[in-house]
Specification:
Rossmann fold
Amino acid sequence: MSDVLSAEEYASARASTPNAHYTSPEVIQAMWHAMAQFGLKAGAHILEPSMGVGHFFGMMPEDLYPDTKRTGVELDSVTAQIAGNLYPDSNIHGKAFEETQLPANFFDAVIGNIPFG
């Protein structure tokens, strides 16, 4: 892997594998549906902790996109870079969630399938 990832990137990717989870599109769609039922509207500030490459952002219903601010946090640096490239209009933090400085009482919703390791 040394021709693709630096030693630090490889170590980060390797460390994330025990707790990396894939959430099916059906579950993501159901969660977005629930958010709509709770009253989430376009223009909201949304946080996705432990976002992986950002499947929840990618499957966000189109009617929520206008003026919605998306913030994601991902521990693995390579995965965070992928998410940043996939969603350049989002604010992506490549670090541990507990080390990420986020404003208090800022987000309207938090969504995701957080891996608990």
